Amino acid sequence: MMDTKKNILVIGLLITTFCFYNYLIYTSKENGEPIKLSKKALVGQKIWQDKNCWSCHQTYGLGGYLGPDLTNIYSNKNKGPNYIKAFLNSGVKSMPKFNFTEQEKEAIIAYLKTIDSTGYYPNYDAALKVNGWVELKYKNEK
Ligand code: HEC
After folding, report:
1. What is the pLDDT of residue 140?
2. Contact, 110 vs 42, CB < 8 A?
């Protein structure tokens, strides 16, 4: 009889802790404002989706795996906007040539620039805090 009461108490305590922890997570303001895309970047995003860049490329590791991850290609010292343009101009054996207009290319670059501004992938600069959060280093931190 004593055991049952004790068990109910422990389960009750666990459920309360669980609810409280969830409350903290879902009301946390730590994640900040969602990223806003400029008009140009929105056009780029639409092309990205319409032309299925995602079927071969990833951002933040998500997408197809035929081509490389493009999260930080914009700020990559050896690559950047002109390099991106060159790929869009000519394609390669395993990437189709798209015949984009200059504006379309600029829009895709604006989209990739915005993605680049949001963080690093892969992100090796992560710290595990005592409360279980993984703290990542973001690019747009004040
Ligand atoms: C059919 C698959 C496929 C599609 C669709 C595709 N790509 Fe690619 N892309 C590749 C492959 C594979 C490479 C790597 C080629 C190489 O390095 O030889 C690549 C390379 C690139 C690169 C250079 C990456 C680097 O780090 O060197 C850029 C930029 C790029 N693609 C942009 C795009 C964009 C933007 C789209 C959509 C408009 C797109 N790709 C659609 C397959 C694809």
Report:
1. 63
2. no
